[in-house]
Amino acid sequence: MGFKTKIRFLHKWLGLISGLIVFIISITGCIFCFHDEIKDITRKEWRLVEPQNKPFILPSVLEKKAKEIVPKNKTSMVSYYGKNRSAIVYTYSETENLYLYFNPYTGKYLKTENPETDFFIIVEYIHLYLLLPDYIGKHIIGGATIIFILLLISGLIQWWPKKRSDLKRSLTVKWSAKWRRVNYDWHNTSGFYILIIALILAITGLTFTYEWVGDGIYKTFNFGGDKAVETKLPVIDTTQFKTNSITAIDRAYIQTTKLQPDAEMLFVLIPQQKGDIISTGAYPHTLRYDHQSNYYFHPNDGELIEKQPFENKTLGLQIVEMNYGIHTGQILDLPGKIIAFIASLFAAALPVSGFVIWYGRKYKRKKFKA
Predict the structure, then answer these.
(1) Shortest CA distance to 3 belongs to which of 148, 162, 149?
(2) Is residue 292 within a helix (H) or strand (E), and if so which, with residue range?
(3) Number of CB atoms found within 10 A of residue 156's CB
(4) DSSP per-residue letters across 177-220
(5) Is the CB of residue 61 less than 8 Å from the CB of residue 106?
(6) Are 159 and 36 in contact (CB under 8 A)?
(7) Residue 70: in which H helix or E strand, if any?
(8) Which residues of the chain form beta strands (DSSP E)?
């Protein structure tokens, strides 16, 4: 067999093996892409609030209110999402996780959400784990994603025209032809047009499955280095430790707002056990999880231990932390999400059109033999 014949054989069988999983990954990515915009429309009663010209309520107050509503749950994080958005207290117990929404200006309780019954969270879990146990599902998803990357590369090799004069034909669909030819042209041309975006989505998606992918991205942009060293939490003296100092949590929050006065979104991680520090994070834009600045405070008195503003991080860590925004397209706001949505939709169509090509050829051979 010639080189292209071998590539075609590899492309066909890899596509048949992974096609269904790739379709599920891509179509759930499409559904999840605009989840914030859809939820803002369908759940605006508890996601959106009237902006007021006064500061937000302190995290200790919201934590206390959440404790009154779900006394058996512990608080893991308090998040502020913007001037016109609810604050959320994230809580957990041995049996469930609950998200409690509050008006950040008045402290009024608005809603409790259970992520296990939330449509978009279920879609996200299908996207990440196929709703299987994570230690099983993530490897199936990861394996299919790696195969998809190989399919994109092998597809490009097959698509590549032998002559420059054939380039125009390779870039267009002959809509006037029979439907099988249209399907064949569509498979080839759509795969080419989304190639770069699909590769970016696939590689950034792999970071959620395999830590070594994120480490590889970090080392690539830093020309080496160790991500674990840069992201290592500071060590503190716990001899005078006071469990969950409310005053310290509030001080950490207040200092973070002063260090990042223009941040639209901010979170405070609540210490869970002795030795845990208070971590805060600030983002410049609402519902965009990139350009994150991090600060670390002592749990006794909220004293600043270490600061790590985004601009002081290495390029490698900046890229790694922008991974979610790149993967979802939100790093470019609405235009980026539209690009990610279209690329995911076309990616979902590739295994379908590829299967039609394979089945058509197989059926044609059987018909010819008969």
Answers:
(1) 162
(2) none
(3) 15
(4) S-HHHHHHHHHHHHHHHTHHHHHHHHHHHHTTT-HHHHHHHHHH
(5) no
(6) no
(7) none
(8) 74-80, 87-92, 97-102, 109-113, 265-269, 278-283, 293-297, 304-308
> What pLDDT does residue 278 have?
95
Cβ 145 vs Cβ 18: under 8 Å = no
Q: For the chain, percent helix, then strand, then coil, each to nearest 5? A: 60, 15, 30
The type of residue at 109 is: Y
148 vs 145: CA distance, rounded Å: 5
* Amino acid residing at 81: Y
- Give 124-168 pLDDT, tens digit per residue: 999 999 999 999 999 999 999 999 999 999 999 999 988 888 888
CB atoms within 10 A of CB 19: 20
Q: How far apart are CA 133 and CA 102, in angstroms?
A: 32
Q: What are the backbone angles phi and psi of residue 291, rounded to the nearest 5°?
A: 55, 45
- The CA-atom distances, in angstroms, between 176 and each of 180, 352, 356, 359 are 11, 21, 19, 22
pTM beyond 0.85, yes or no: yes
CA-to-CA distance for 259 and 297, rounded, in angstroms?
13
DSSP code string of 124-153: HHHHHHTTS-HHHHHHHHHHHHHHHHHHHH
Cα of 74 vs its chain's centroid, Å: 25
- Condensed to tens digits (0 to 9), the pLDDT of residues 75-93 reads 999 999 999 999 999 999 9
pLDDT at 64: 96
Expressed in angstroms, the distance from the first to the final Cα of the chain is 27
User: Which tokens hold the place of 170?
Assistant: 């390779």
Q: Assess whether pLDDT exceeds 60 at residue 312.
A: yes
